[in-house]
Design brief:
By secondary structure, this protein is of the alpha/beta class. The chain has 14 helices and twelve strands. Mean pLDDT is about 85; it is low at about 235-240.
Length: about 450
C-alpha cells in the first residue's frame, strides 16, 4: 500500500493541477474575449503552457506534502510555483508569439492562476491530512529514549494524527513507575525487534552513544532512516532544523544525496542517454560478433545471468557475456587466476572488462546505474554482510556498471577480508558524496584503469 501511494500520488497530483490550469486558460480566454472559439486558440502557446507546468511542479517537488508541513508553507510553495511558471511562459510567448499578447487575457490568467492553484493545493493538503487521520498513507515509528524528548514526540504523534505516523510506545530505560506512557522494553528489546514493521526510527539525544551507534548500524543493515531528537530550544533551530513535528525538532542522520528527487532525475537522465549511446554505437555490432565467437568456442548461452542484490536489497538478474564453460559453481566460486573454467575468449573479455557491456541493458531497464556500488553474487553478499561494517549501506542506491572501488583498482577475486572492506568503504564514500561530476570522474578513471590493465582482472 505504501509503495502504491508513493507511486501514484505524484502523477494524480500533477494531473489534477494540469486539469486546473487548463480550465483556467479557457476561463481567462472567455473573460478576455467574451467567448471561446477553439479554432482561434494559439495551439503552440497552449502546448507550451501545459508542458512547462508539470516540469516546474515536479522539480519543485510540490507533490511532496510533508507530514508536518503547515498550510502556510503550502501557500508559499504554491505562490512560488505560479510565479516561476508565469515568468517562464511569458518569456516563451514573448519570443514565439506572431502577434501582440492580449494584456487582458494575460492579466486574468495570472490572477486566476494565483487564486485557483492555491485553492487546489490547500484542498489537496486538507484531503491528505484527513486521509492520514483515518489511517491512509500511514507510517510506523519507533521512538528510542524513555525520557522527556521521547515523551514529547510520542505525545505530538498521538495528538497530531493527520501526520499519519503511528507509534505504539517508547523503548528505553526507566525507573519511574508513575509515567503512564506505553513502555515497549529496553534498548536490546528494540535491537531484537522486527525492523520490517518500522518506517522511521527516532532516537533521543540522551540515549548513550554506544547504543546510538548500534541503532544506526542496525538501521543501515535494514535500510531504515534514523532521525535524532536533539535537546535544543526550538527557537534556536529555526534556521537549522530540516523539519519539525509541532514543537519537536527532527534532524536526519543518515540521508544521502541520492535521496533527493532532483539528484535522482539527473542521474537517471544521464544513465539513459549514456546507455542508449553505448547500445546503439557499440553493442549493435559487438553483440553479433561476440555471440558468434562465444558460441563457436563452447556450448551454452551467449549471456551469463545471475541473481544479484540491487537497490534496497531487491534481487535482479544481472547480465554479462558468458566467459566460462557451463558449470555448477558459478554462483558460489569466484574466478581465480588460471581458472580452468574460463574460456580463451572469456579471458580476453574479463581482462578488458568487455564482458560487463550487457549490463547496459540492466541500466536501460532501471535495475542498475552507470556508476554505483558493483553488485555482488548473492552468496558473496550473505557471507560478508555481517562481517563488514555497514555492508548493507551499499544497497541504498542502484548498483553500477562501474564504481569508485573499481575505478581505484579493486577488481576481481576477493582473497583477503580487507579487499571487501576496502570496497565497501569506497562505496559508502561514493554514496555519501555523490555528485554528477563525481560520476563523470569515475567513468574517466574506469576507462584509464581498463586501458592500463590490472593484475586482478582475470
Amino acid at each position: 500500500m505504501k509503495k502504491r501511494f508513493n507511486t501514484y500520488f505524484p502523477s494524480f497530483f500533477i494531473f489534477g493541477e494540469l486539469v486546473v490550469i487548463a480550465i483556467i486558460y479557457i476561463l481567462a480566454a472567455i473573460v478576455a474575449d467574451g467567448k471561446v472559439e477553439f479554432e482561434k486558440f494559439d495551439i503552440y502557446a497552449f502546448v507550451i503552457y501545459l508542458s512547462v507546468w508539470p516540469i516546474i511542479s515536479f522539480l519543485n517537488k510540490d507533490y511532496k506534502i510533508g507530514r508536518a508541513v503547515s498550510y502556510y508553507t503550502t501557500l508559499k510553495r504554491a505562490f512560488a510555483s505560479v510565479f516561476i511558471f508565469i515568468s517562464l511562459i511569458s518569456l516563451f510567448w514573448l519570443f514565439s508569439a506572431t502577434e501582440a499578447l492580449n494584456r487582458h487575457f494575460l492579466g486574468t490568467l495570472i490572477i486566476l492562476l494565483f487564486l485557483w492553484v492555491t485553492i487546489y493545493r490547500v484542498s489537496v493538503h486538507l484531503v491528505l491530512d484527513k486521509y492520514r487521520t483515518f489511517g491512509g498513507n500511514v507510517r510506523y515509528a519507533a521512538i528510542i529514549g524513555y525520557d522527556k524528548l521521547g515523551f514529547n514526540l510520542f505525545k505530538v504523534l498521538s495528538k497530531k494524527t493527520h501526520y499519519g505516523i503511528r507509534c505504539q510506545g517508547i523503548f528505553g530505560t526507566t525507573d519511574d513507575p508513575n509515567i503512564n506512557l506505553p513502555y515497549l522494553g529496553d534498548y536490546d528489546d528494540f535491537l531484537k525487534s522486527d525492523f520490517q514493521n518500522i518506517d522511521f526510527i527516532y532516537v533521543s539525544e540522551k540515549v548513550p552513544k554506544r547504543i546510538l551507534n548500534k541503532i544506526i548500524a542496525s538501521a543501515d543493515l535494514h535500510l531504515k532512516k534514523v532521525k535524532l531528537l536533539p535537546e535544543i530550544k526550538t527557537d534556536a533551530l529555526k534556521s537549522l532544523v530540516l523539519r519539525r513535528f509541532d514543537s519537536v525538532p527532527i534532524i536526519d542522520l543518515n540521508k544521502i544525496p541520492l535521496d533527493v528527487v532532483l539528484n535522482k532525475i539527473v542521474k537517471r537522465t544521464f544513465d539513459l542517454i549514456f546507455c542508449l549511446i553505448v547500445l546503439v554505437t557499440v553493442m549493435s555490432w559487438m553483440y553479433p560478433i561476440f555471440a558468434l565467437i562465444i558460441k563457436l568456442e563452447s556450448k551454452g548461452s551467449v549471456f551469463f545471468r545471475q541473481w544479484r542484490h540491487g537497490e534496497g536489497g531487491r534481487k535482479f538478474i544481472c547480465y554479462k557475456f558468458r566467459t566460462m564453460i557451463i558449470n555448477d559453481e558459478a554462483d558460489n566460486m569466484w574466478a581465480s587466476k588460471d581458472d580452468p573454467r574460463i574460456t580463451k575468449f572469456g579471458a580476453f573479455l574479463r581482462k578488458t572488462s568487455l564482458d560487463e557491456f550487457p549490463q547496459f541493458v540492466n541500466v536501460l531497464f532501471g535495475s542498475m546505474s552507470i556508476v554505483g556500488p558493483r553488485p555482488h553474487p548473492i552468496s558473496l553478499n550473505e557471507s560478508y554482510e555481517r562481517r563488514v561494517e555497514k555492508f548493507s549501506k551499499r544497497h541504498a542506491s542502484k548498483p553500477g556498471v562501474t564504481g569508485l572501488a573499481q575505478a581505484m583498482g579493486y577488481r576481481g577475486e576477493i582473497k583477503e577480508f580487507y579487499h571487501m572492506s576496502s570496497r565497501v568503504k569506497l562505496d559508502r564514500f561514493y554514496l555519501q558524496n555523490w555528485s554528477f561530476l563525481l560520476d563523470i570522474k569515475i567513468i574517466i578513471l574506469t576507462v584509464f584503469s581498463v586501458l592500463r590493465g590490472t593484475d586482478n582482472a582475470y
